[in-house]
Amino acid sequence: MPSPTVRRFSEPRSGEVARTRRRDRFLCDAMLGHLARWLRAAGYDTELAPPRAGDRTLLDSARREGRILLTCDRTIPGDGGRVRHLPMAELSELARILREDLGIDWLRAPFSRCLLDNAELEQVADPATAGIPAPARHLPGPFTRCPRCGRLFWPGSHVRRMRERLASWYRGTRKAARRPS
Ligand SMILES: [Zn+2]
Fold first, then answer.
1. CA angle, 86 as apex, 81 and 91 as ends, to 5°?
2. How far apart are CA 99 and CA 117, in angstroms?
3. How high is the pLDDT of residue 23?
4. pLDDT digits over 106-137, tens only?
5. R_g over Cα of the chain
6. Separation of 74 CA from ligand 1 center, angstroms?
7. By percentage, how much of the chain surpasses pLDDT 70?
8. 120 to 67, 144, 157: CA distances (angstroms)
9. What are the domain boundaries of the chain?
10. How far is the CA of 18 from the centre of ligand 1 (A)?
11. Most buried of 46, 102, 116, 170, CB within 10 angstroms?
């Protein structure tokens, strides 16, 4: 029984569904907001469930939108592989698990989505008129804008640090994946 709240965060995005493969789309439960942000940073279509969404609501949303539900709640049933239970662990450990178990490529399409609302970012033609701060305009780009919330992104130090972390997860988890288990 979908609630109006669910309807709001599960609205179809123009063109997204057609462009994204089914197993590349995720729904994080509200406890995994941090992970959702990093999956978006890596370029994965990742929605975040609203706080206190019930099990049925989460499963219905995941099914309807063709998403894998990522959750730390062991009481939620597996639902034929649609649910991936995660341990309560540090982010780097979750990153390793997702790479090894779900084949997450942490360098898939870095910073192609808004970290806050998951929308696909659009290239900004002219950084100056778009409102990119003057000190950042000399950067090599890309300069992007979120069509939903209007936020601007540029490859400043924060983005560079995040990219380095994504790269370390990509490298580290590849190494880990080759280790005999
Ligand atoms: Zn946005």
1. 135
2. 23
3. 66
4. 999 999 999 999 999 999 989 989 999 999 99
5. 17
6. 31
7. 82
8. 17, 10, 21
9. 4-10+21-102, 122-178
10. 20
11. 46
Q: Look at residue 55 and give its three-state secondary structure.
A: helix
- Chain-centroid distance of CA 147 in Å reads 17
How far, in Å, is the centroid of ligand 1 from the Cα of 148? Answer: 5
Two tokens, residue 167: 């790269």
Using CA atoms, how far apart are residues 165 and 106, in angstroms rounded to an integer? 9
Span from the CA of 152 to the centroid of ligand 1 (angstroms):
9
150 Cα–ligand 1 center, Å: 6
Any idea what DSSP says for residue 49? Answer: P
The Cα diameter of the chain in Å comes to 53
State in Å: Cα 93 to ligand 1 middle. Answer: 27
The residues facing 71 across adjacent strands are 85
Length of the chain: 181
